[in-house]
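Please decode residue identities from the backbone states below.
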């Protein structure tokens, strides 16, 4: 296993990070594993040298933290791992059950520590940018959490570049703890973060960790998986022709090498010099092995061209564009322009 410093911090993390959204209770979503099913996957990742574990309070509405916390307590010493969890999505039905108000952030850290049965979180992360809470309120609360020892560092996830810049500006002006990690969605079928977010993070010394390197399963070539059949976000994010053509290219490169398509897609992500760590959400120890193999898979120029040739710009994928994204396909003319094909006057 390779280990890298996360941004300009002194924290060293494995280049593979164990994603745990699929661990908790199937009562939350049908593709979620319970504790007994999850433990072999966690054990396999730890045995492979993974020290970076990603969670969120929202996963299985808290049960995910309980399940993973129980497993980690049995398998590894606390000081040997880097645990991150996220706060922001609703954890209940009352008015203050979500968001990044001081109240919810403070309630959130205490709830996560209780469920994980830990004394501290290594990186406490904002799950998104809360447009309804003053950024000063949120970042002061996170700074207080770091100063209290309940978290060692803070991080952020899934927002616009200007929003992260606003966070950094406030932290520098007030002398508060700055984020050391940006967790974003990035893969062969979604590369929009290359325009502003990734260069900005590199400039500011913020480590980039990547989730969904397989485009929510699209790039595995297994369209019939339980998740792909039940997770409507997959079709919403990656249902366009460009994404399908990119998946076909990954399959062609994989066939040429005699490996699985997942390994090729993950190798492409790991080969991007701006990526510190890649999240792996495996359904079995064997699936995790494709990511391990990807660490040593170096793509040549012809393979990279084949993988990248079908990419076209698209709308950002984040909370603010959910349900509003425009597919990368021509749209039919409407209103006064309908039926005027070929006419210019």
């Amino acid at each position: 296993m390779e280990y890298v410093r996360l941004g300009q911090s002194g924290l060293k993390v494995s280049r593979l990070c164990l994603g745990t959204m699929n661990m908790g209770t199937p009562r939350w979503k049908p593709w979620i594993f319970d504790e007994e099913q999850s433990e072999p996957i966690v054990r396999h990742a730890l045995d492979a040298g993974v020290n970076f574990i990603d969670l969120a309070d929202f996963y299985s509405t808290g049960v995910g933290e309980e399940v993973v916390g129980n497993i980690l307590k049995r398998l590894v010493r606390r000081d040997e791992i880097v645990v991150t969890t996220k706060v922001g999505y609703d954890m209940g039905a009352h008015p203050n059950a979500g968001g990044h108000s001081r109240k919810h952030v403070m309630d959130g850290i205490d709830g996560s520590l209780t469920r994980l049965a830990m004394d501290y979180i290594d990186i406490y992360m904002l799950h998104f940018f809360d447009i309804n809470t003053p950024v000063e309120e949120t970042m002061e609360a996170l700074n207080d959490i770091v100063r209290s020892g309940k978290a060692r560092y803070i991080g952020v996830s899934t927002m616009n570049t200007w929003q992260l810049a606003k966070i950094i500006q406030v932290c520098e002006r007030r002398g508060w703890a700055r984020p050391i990690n940006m967790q974003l969605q990035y893969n062969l079928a979604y590369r929009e973060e290359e325009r502003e977010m990734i260069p900005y993070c590199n400039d500011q010394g913020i480590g980039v960790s990547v989730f969904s390197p397989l485009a929510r399963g699209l790039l595995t070539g297994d369209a019939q998986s339980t998740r792909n059949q039940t997770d409507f976000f997959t079709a919403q994010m990656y249902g366009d022709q460009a994404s399908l053509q990119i998946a076909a290219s990954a399959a062609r490169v994989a066939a040429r090498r005699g490996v699985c398509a997942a390994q090729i897609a993950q190798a492409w992500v790991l080969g991007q010099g701006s990526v510190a760590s890649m999240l792996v959400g495996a359904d079995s120890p064997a699936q995790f092995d494709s990511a391990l193999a990807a660490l040593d898979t170096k793509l040549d120029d012809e393979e990279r061209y084949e993988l990248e040739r079908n990419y076209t710009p698209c709308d950002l994928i984040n909370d603010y564009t959910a349900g509003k994204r425009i597919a990368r396909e021509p749209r039919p003319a409407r209103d006064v322009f309908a039926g005027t094909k070929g006419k210019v006057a």
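Observation: Strands lie at 3-5, 12-14, 16-19, 52-54, 82-87, 121-126, 151-157, 179-185, 207-211, 277-280.
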